[in-house]
Design goal:
By secondary structure, this protein is an alpha/beta fold. The protein contains 14 helices and 17 strands. The chain has 2 domains: 145 residues, Fe-S cluster assembly (FSCA) (GMP Synthetase, Chain A, domain 3, 2-Layer Sandwich); 250 residues, 3-Layer(aba) Sandwich (Rossmann fold). Strand 8 and strand 9 form a beta hairpin. The longest helix is centred in the C-terminal third of the chain and has 15 residues.
């Protein structure tokens, strides 16, 4: 963990702007565009954090300049819309803003005037004291950029932000983490009171390895995120973790006094044992420790209520699959197979596990269905495997199981993933204009609508 610098600021009373009590949006996105004003919606949530903020040591500097004090109040209000990307909470609600001081710049100041300031415009220098959760926070630049934008777009005066950054004290951080833990259940994805959880949980499974299960899981999660869904992913394939490589993740999650922040990559909040073990380190764990690792990923990580959670399961029907079914009884199994009978017959077993465990089969994906060469689809591994799996599962589980997608054997899926980007995305993070991406979009829509 990073070391913490203690910084104490004198607290004075202030009037906090009225909270935005507008209703939260439904859990389903309203379009394929990114969710509008997602940060503002999350920042406006009423919660224990808002109540804590009303008691926190924020500062509006006392001044005889009524306009300066009004600016401090308005800047404070505007900063409530700045969201910590890791925690998904307002920096004000989390008591990260510890001081705001607006000062009218003298007309004879040696400082350069902002280019947008006219000769008769007043210019206010606004000093903001910010305490980050840890020293060297990996998303500092994002937070600072959003703060500067909030201040500089103030409509009624020319404001020049000056942000002083430090780290929370150990005591303050411990208090924040404790409030985070109190704000959720031990396992935030477990149903309560017999109702379904708010999160669509998709466990991507296969009967055997080598069928492209992890590629399907990664691209499905990336597709949901690009469509505007708040998306998380857990690499539960402990022995064969590969999601960090596909998403280009080379950093470890931030540790906030024992609570881990998932790494955000391509719009997906991601956790994997590979972030801790290293890509070449073998994992030699047996059943109980496997179960504990999943429990920790669920209960010791701050997921911030995702709409969609994608799990990449190990192949087969071993300990981890059983643990997922027990801890996440509402999870839906997405079975991945390849066309040949030797793979499809084994894939049926993964789906049939739902007969003995909680959960339902969400559908089947046939990967490597063909290889396109000079406009011709070559069925290198045969054909019909996905349809056979879907038909067999439908007959045995007692409800329709659809073949949701047939995906090609495409070298670009591998080369783009090796460069650290899911193949359905362009370099700027938007959905690619390819048939592969469109296949995943159709799959994501079908899965969401099947809830």
């Amino acid at each position: 963990m990073s070391e913490f610098r203690k910084t104490d600021f004198h607290a004075t009373s202030y009037r906090k702007p009225a909270a935005d009590t507008s209703p939260r949006p439904d859990k389903a996105p309203h379009s394929d565009d990114a969710l509008n004003n997602a940060s503002a919606s999350r920042g406006a949530r009423t919660s224990d954090f808002a109540r804590a903020a009303s008691e926190a040591a924020h500062i509006l500097e006392p001044t005889d300049d009524a306009k300066a004090y009004a600016i401090e109040q308005q800047v404070y209000a505007r900063l409530t819309g700045v969201i910590d990307p890791e925690l998904g909470r307002s920096i004000v609600d989390m008591q990260m803003v510890t001081g705001i001081d607006a000062q009218l710049r003298p007309a004879d100041s040696d400082l350069d005037r902002p280019v947008q300031a006219g000769p008769n415009d007043d210019v206010y220098d606004v000093t903001i004291r910010l305490e980050l959760t840890v020293s060297g926070c990996p998303l500092t630049e994002k937070i600072l950029s959003d703060m500067q934008q909030a201040v500089q777009t103030y409509p009624d005066a020319i404001l020049v932000p000056r942000i002083s950054v430090s780290a929370m004290s150990k005591e303050k951080l411990s208090g924040l983490v404790e409030r985070l833990r109190q704000a959720r259940r031990e396992n935030p994805f477990a149903p309560k009171d017999g109702s379904s959880p708010d999160t669509l949980i998709i466990a991507v499974a296969s009967g055997k390895g080598g069928v492209g299960k992890s590629a399907v899981a990664a691209n499905l999660a990336a597709t949901f995120a690009a469509l505007g869904y708040k998306t998380a992913a857990i690499d539960a394939d402990i022995y064969g973790f590969s999601l960090p490589g596909i998403f280009g993740v080379r950093s470890r999650p931030t540790d906030l006094d024992g609570m881990l922040m998932p790494v955000d990559a391509w719009g997906v909040k991601l956790m994997s044992i590979g972030m801790f073990a290293g890509s070449d380190q073998p994992i030699l764990w047996r059943g109980p420790r496997l179960q504990r690792s999943l429990q920790q990923f669920l209960s010791d990580v701050w997921w911030d209520n995702p709409q969609v959670m994608v799990l990449d399961l190990p192949p087969g029907t071993g300990d981890m699959s059983i643990s997922v079914a027990q801890m996440l009884p509402s999870a839906r199994i997405l079975v991945v197979t390849t066309p040949q009978p030797s793979a499809s017959s084994i894939a049926v077993r993964a789906g049939l596990s739902t007969l003995q465990l909680p959960g339902k089969v969400a559908g089947v994906v046939e990967n490597m269905a063909w290889y396109e060469h000079n406009g011709e689809k070559l069925r290198i591994f045969g054909e019909g495997g996905g349809a056979r799996v879907a038909q067999s599962l439908t007959q045995q589980v007692g409800y329709p199981v659809e073949l949701l997608a047939q995906l090609p054997l495409d070298t670009e899926i591998r080369t783009v993933a090796e460069a650290g980007r899911p193949a359905v995305l362009t370099a700027d993070g938007s959905l690619a204009d390819t048939e592969l991406a469109r296949s995943f979009v159709r799959m994501a829509r079908a899965l969401w609508q099947s809830q």
